[in-house]
Every structure is written in C-alpha cells, then in structure tokens.
Amino acid sequence: MNLENLEARLKSLAKMDIIKPPVELIQSLPRKFKQKFPRSRTLSLEYQKYIPGGHEHQNAIKWPFTITMDKGEGAFVWDVDGNAYVDFLMASGPIILGHNYPEVMEHVISIIREKGPALGVMSEQELLAAKEIVKHVDSVKQVRFYQSGTEVGMAAARLARCYTGKEYIIKAGGSYHGWSDQFVYDLHIPGTGALFSYGIPRGCYEKTLSFKPGDIRRLEKLLKRYNKPGKGGVAAVFLEGGGGDGMTHYVPREFYHAARELCDDHGALMVMDEVITGFRLAMGGAQEYFGINADLSMLGKIVGHQYPSAGALGGREDVMELLGAQAEEVDENGTSIKKSVMTAGTLAGTNITCAAACKAIQCIEKTDAINIAARVADKITAIINDAFESHDLPFFAYNFKSIIHCATSGSSFYHISLNLPDALEKIDACREVLGMYNAMLMLEGIQSLQAMRFYTSLAHDSSEVLEKVANAFDAFAANLASME
Ligand SMILES: Cc1ncc(COP(=O)(O)O)c(C=O)c1O
C-alpha cells in the first residue's frame, strides 16, 4: 500500500460512522461465549474474585469474559475448552519462531538441567547472549540485561541524564516505552498528555516532553527551547522503531534521519525503542530497516522469545560504560570524577533468559524467520483486505514486515481528532466496538492483539493457517456487512 496515503486513509476512516455488529449479534455474543467456552467462563468468575479486574494481561480479551489458554504450539494456541486459535497475539509480540519452538525449548531446558535457572552473578550465558545482540545490531557495542522493557526504558532515561548532565526526555506522542512514571505520559493517542497518568505525581512526568509523531519541526523547537541556559537541557529523544504503539503512528525513514541530525546538533542521545521491532523488522531492528544508528537501543520481547524476563539495553561503549559498577574516583580536591549509574535486578540476565535469547537469535537468523514471517504477513494482509472489499466494508489492513495492522471503526480511536467536542465519547465508542470485533474473531478461532494488530511468525507459513484466516475474516466481514 502507498504509505503516503496511510495517514489520510486512517483519518478519513476515523471520521466515518462507527460500524457496529448488528444488535442481535451483539446480544448473542455473551450466550455464544458461554456455550463455547464453559471452562473459561468458570475460571473467569474465579479470577474476578482473586485477581483485580479478572485478568492480568492488558492485551487479553476481556469481554464478554476472558478466555483461558491452555497451551501453544507453532502458530496455534488452544484454550481450556479445547478450542484452537490461529494466534496472532504471539504473547504480545515476543514470538517470531512460533510457540514453544523446539530448538529454543530444548536448549533452555538443557541449561536449566545442567546449570540451574539463575545464579545471581555473571554466567557465561550472558556473554553468549550479549555477543549475539552485538553481532546483529550495528549501533550496539555493549549490552546490559534487565527484567522487562519497562526497566530498560527506566535505565535508558537515567543513563542518558547521567551521560549528558541534562534533565528532560522527549518522546513521540502515542508511543509506549513501558509503564514507569516518567513514560506514562501522552500514551497511545498523541495529545492526550496526562490522561492516563492516574496515580503518578505530576513531578514524575514533568520532565517528559512529547511531540506529534513525525513532526520534526516541533521536535526541533523543543530541543532548542529546553536546551537554553537554565532550562535543564534535553538528555534524550526516545523513538519507537517505525512509530508509536507498534508502528500504529507510522513515521517514515526521513524522519529518523532528520531526528538523528537534530539529536547530534543539540547534544541529546537518540534512544531507539526496539522492544517490538528488534529481531522482527530486521536482524538489526528498525535501525537496520531505516538505515540509522541510535546511541542507545531498548530491546525486549523477542530477546527472550517467550521466556522470562526479556529486557536488554544496548548502545555506544562510552555511554554504556556508565552502567559499570565502578567505585567513584575522587580527585585531589575531593571532587567525584567518575560517574556511575545505579540500576539493578535480582533476576536480570538469568540463565533462562540469556540461553533463550542466544538460541532464539541464532534460530531467527538460520531460518530467515523475519522474512518468512513477513511474506506470510503480506499474504494474510491481502486475505483480510479481500474479505473487507468483498463485503463492501471501508476497513483495510496493512503491514510492516510481520506486523499487520487492521484499520477498522474499532481501531480508529487512535486517529480521532482531539479537537472534536465529543472526542472522548468517540474514543470510548470505538474501544467498545473493538471489544466486540475481538469477541467475534475469537469465536471464529482468531486470537490477535485486540483485533487491531496481528503478529505473524515463521510457523504461520502454512496453507492451514491461510485457509483458517480466510474463512474467519470472511465470516467476520459478512457479519458486519449484514448491518445494511
Ligand atoms: C515499544 C515498547 N516499549 C517498551 C515496552 C515495555 O516492555 P515490557 O512489557 O517488557 O515492560 C513495550 C511493551 O509492550 C513496548 O511495546
């Protein structure tokens, strides 16, 4: 698809009336769920009692009730009632070889058996995993493991502030860099500022600035304004590879190159958040895809390939060395001359994580998983578009390698103009209908990231998957089109 038109198409879809499933269908969904998922229903009632909100995972289906999965293999997951799904959620992105990929699983188990799951001090597994990352991500010369992408973001911000001696961080509006206090600002929908920052004192995010995705002039203005004497200065610009929220707010290659120049001109570090794009867009992540080098790279998800705990910060040697736990040196005047950034994690860089990281990266390279998953995604995108077109729906799908986006009335909440007087009501209405679409797709045997995002893997490369997707989307689109 022509990416130049993408923004215009998304905006125009967001202006259209929401296409809801027919009333009878909406009313029948809870009954159908009860019939098809009895064990999940019983468990969901118990979750309500013991687990806040009845679920742990933000991307799990929530309405009519959450579905409990039992096992995963290849491109499929099975729920506790024995129903199979083509899985496009892929644990929210960490899986690109397929569920429970045998070679990774055997390797992790053998390491656990022979050496134990975690030693709490250096083990050779860390070195092996770090070397694999450095081999592929050009800008990364050193690596430090953490327990999640959220922790990696916290470490990157602290490190950038220590290295530059400056205070502010800038992010693109709508981006997600984990849920630490300073990053829960202007989330998901650009321009929403502190809308989702409940429980966070203003002081925690007041040194976080944001700009409209792709707006290079605004980024330049912020850098200039906050680098003026006495203003505190900008330590780092955080960018998600390909654009915020998993490339939902897509920005083109030129933006990254211009942003790189601005960072250099204004003495700010460029931090590329590759938690989704790392080992998915290319072996060298979004940086290879767009042909740039960041100063720091945030990695998560596929680093770990579904084994806990996935998080790694990588980058330039002269910046990363501040994470070294050196004792402070004090000069003859008693002045500290060696800075060291405090970060930690009891179960960071365990044998499990690092064995999984090392073996998964090797398998991704060996199998050409990135390109195979991308080619399958091309086919699935075409299948979804066929279904929408043949049922005359104004929806469309598009993909960046193995990340498919499904643009519907439901996902339109991302692109609603906040200038509209009823913007928040519209956003709620989109999200409500998105929940319905998700339920409809689950009934058709498709699990995705809330009916908006679909991650493919090496294992999706099968005619069985393509056939199931074609049938499911045809039924889904037919149900929506029956409105007219
Ligand atoms: C781009 C990005 N950065 C950071 C994170 C946070 O990673 P984690 O969930 O491991 O804390 C995520 C998680 O979805 C992400 O998508």
Break the fold down into its secondary structure elements and pairings.
Blueprint: H1 6-15, H2 23-36, H3 38-50, E1 69-73, E2 76-79, E3 84-87, H4 102-115, H5 124-136, E4 142-145, H6 149-164, E5 168-172, H7 202-205, E6 208-211, H8 216-226, E7 234-240, H9 244-247, E8 249-250, H10 253-266, E9 269-273, H11 285-290, E10 296-300, E11 311-315, H12 317-320, H13 351-367, H14 369-390, E12 396-400, E13 403-407, H15 423-443, E14 446-447, E15 453-455, H16 463-481
Parallel strand pairs: 3-14, 5-6, 5-7, 7-9, 9-10
Antiparallel strand pairs: 1-2, 2-3, 4-11, 10-11, 12-13, 13-15
Description of the molecule:
The protein is of the alpha/beta class and 484 residues long. It folds into 2 domains: 194 residues, Aspartate Aminotransferase, domain 1 (Alpha-Beta Complex); 266 residues, Aspartate Aminotransferase, domain 2. It is built from 16 helices and 15 strands. Strand 1 and strand 2 form a beta hairpin. Helix 2 crosses helix 15. The longest helix has 22 residues. The mean pLDDT is 95. Pyridoxal-5'-phosphate binds next to helix 6.
Global outline: globular
Count of the separate structural domains: 2
Largest sheet report: 7 strands, mixed
Q: Return residue spans where pLDDT drops below 50 for at least 5 consecutive residues.
A: none
CATH class of the largest domain: Alpha Beta
CATH superfamily name of the largest domain? Type I PLP-dependent aspartate aminotransferase-like (Major domain)
Strand order of the largest sheet: 4-11-10-9-7-5-6
What structural class results from the helix and strand content? alpha/beta
Report the CATH architecture of the largest domain.
3-Layer(aba) Sandwich
Look up the CATH topology of the largest domain.
Aspartate Aminotransferase, domain 2
List the ligand species: pyridoxal-5'-phosphate
Strand proportion: 5-15%
Distance between the termini: 28 Å
Count of helical regions: 16
Mean pLDDT score, rounded?
Answer: 95
Radius of gyration: 23 Å
**Could you tell me the number of beta strands?**
15
